[in-house]
Amino acid sequence: MQTTGNAVTKEMFEHVGKNISQMEAIARPSITYWQDAWRRLKQNKVAMLGLIIIILYTIMAIVGPYMTPYDYRTTNTAEIDQPPSAKHWFGTDTLGRDLWARTWMGARVSLAIGFLAAFLNAVIGVIIGGISGYFGGKVDMFIMRTIDILYSIPYMIIVILMMVVLGQGIMPLVIAMVVVGWLNMARLVRGQVLQLKEQEFVLAAKVLGASHSRIIFKHLIPNALGVILVNLTMSVPSAIFTEAFLSFIGLGVVPPHSSWGQLAYYGIQAFRVRPYQLFIPAFFISTTMLSLNLLGDGLRDALDPRLRS
Amino acid sequence: MGRYILNRLFVSLITAWVLVTLVFFLIRLLPGDPFLSEKVTPEIKANMMKYYGLDKPIHIQYATFLGNLLKGDFGYSLRYKNRTVNEVINQAFPYSADLGIRAVIFAAIAGVTLGIIAALNRNRSWDYLSMFIAIVGVSVPSFVIGPLLQYVFATKLKLLPVSQWKGFAYTIMPTFALSLHSLALMARLMRASMLDVVNQDYIKTAKAKGLSPFQIIWKHQIRNAILPVVTVLGPVTATLLTGTFVVEQIFAIPGLGKFYILGIQNLDYSLVLGMTTFYGLFLIAANFVVDIIYGLVDPRIRLAR
């Protein structure tokens, strides 16, 4: 082997002294759990599409009704059952109300009910599940048996019963969904808390004299937040579905208010003649639920890589 | 096994009691007093008095209510004299049950098959296709699928009858519309369960013994993977039976759902509450049966409790 000409000699090396400050310097900005999750989520194109659609619908729910000169409540007997046209973009209904305005006013109601019910369920579930898991013993036993029994009664049956009693409307809908909607979240959070409370950082907090509520809300819940968020995202579509289902069987939102479920309910009366009256709200219900489900799947993968299958 | 059944029976009875007690107190929360308003005819008032004992103190009312339910009597209509909830159930429930059973069977078979196909072709196009069907199925409600099917297959292509319930051809679209959601749910669950089982030691053992891939999949993987799917049969039955409200409405099937929606529209509180109680008790019973089946097929479950 010839080494002449390009031989490695001692002169080619230079002594670099230790530079403590440079050694310890952080080369790249450190990434928190949430930044990391966001980065993973951004790579998931399907989930991002879901997120974009949800944001788009939310924006449209806010500005959509103002994009047309027609009011969502004003009936017009001269223009009933118009198909979609340049004048009425989504057509009109049997009372001559503009369906573009009604669809986006309905989006407000459907999305608001979906997010509000899911959020309230999550809050109640987190509090009850957190208490149950943290204190254990008799408290846990009592809460879990109660949840078991309430869980055995079909969800829809309780919601329908509550709606019959509370009467129709937006707030009764949310209340009816929240009465038993928190059970799932409570079970989930309890399981998480049971795992987390044995870990050292909780012991450290106890030794430092932290109160029970501080340990639960400052240490245990933030660590379970990923799982909570995924479950929350997944429960929004089911709340939207419940609203649509109830409005569809005549127990939900009543006119002149509108919601997607209610529009579908009226759309079905004559959909063989005027399919657009059903298919427009149906399209928005389906794509919203699909987007939220896809986003939920993506969030689960992003927040908890262990669960990826 | 005996202890397990007794335990489950006890829980189911408590659940049933909680449900009927809830119904009893919710009736008292109804706005105004719908049972005794002026619009109600004297005959119906007499029926209400007889069924609820509205003139008696509340604990006797409660006892009467429980006694009636134990006798299998679900009450009277508030709108039509001579119509009892039991008559409505006898007349209409067979249709709903027929549709419901078809949907459960179809959802279970198709869902499990789809899940197996997806798991065996993991990360290949069959997997993506199956899971796409599954996520669409979870996201699209039956009241969207139903009319869509009607529009395409009945109105446009004229392949199937639009509505009603008069023979096999009439059952195809309602069954499909009703079961799609549950089918999708079971497919996702079966896929996850199959992928979970494939890493177990007994699969390695079976491979080491030199069993054929078919035998491994059929005898070891599917048999074990199907167990968690059995547990969702209870909730799935509940979803399907309440789903019949909508599907029966769309396809004009003379089942319970039609009367239920009619009752809601007529503000026929006692009919709606009676039918809801019936549904609730029926589903609790269905859950009990599913629990027993699960205990039978998986010994670990009955030993764990």
From TrEMBL, chain A:
The chain crosses the membrane at residues 46-67, 109-135, 147-164, 170-189, 220-240, 278-296. It is found in: Cell membrane. The keyword DNA damage does not apply. SUPFAM superfamilies: MetI-like (SSF161098). One of its GO terms (cellular component) is plasma membrane. It is a multi-pass membrane protein. Keywords: Cell membrane, Membrane, Transmembrane, Transmembrane helix, Transport. GO terms for biological process: transmembrane transport. Residues 107-296 form the ABC transmembrane type-1 domain. CDD domains: TM_PBP2. Belongs to the binding-protein-dependent transport system permease family. This is Oligopeptide transport system permease protein. It comes from Thermosediminibacter litoriperuensis.
From TrEMBL, chain B:
This is Oligopeptide transport system permease protein. SUPFAM superfamilies: MetI-like. It is found in: Cell membrane. The keyword Transmembrane helix applies. It comes from the Bacteria. Residues 93-294 form the ABC transmembrane type-1 domain. It comes from Thermosediminibacter litoriperuensis. InterPro entries: BPD_transp_1_N, MetI-like, MetI-like_sf. It holds the Pfam family BPD_transp_1. Its main location: membrane. PANTHER family: DIPEPTIDE TRANSPORT SYSTEM PERMEASE PROTEIN DPPB-RELATED. Keywords: Cell membrane, Membrane, Transmembrane, Transmembrane helix, Transport. Belongs to the binding-protein-dependent transport system permease family. The keyword Transmembrane helix applies. It is a multi-pass membrane protein. GO terms for cellular component: plasma membrane. The chain crosses the membrane at residues 9-30, 99-120, 132-153, 168-187, 225-251, 271-297. GO terms for biological process: transmembrane transport.
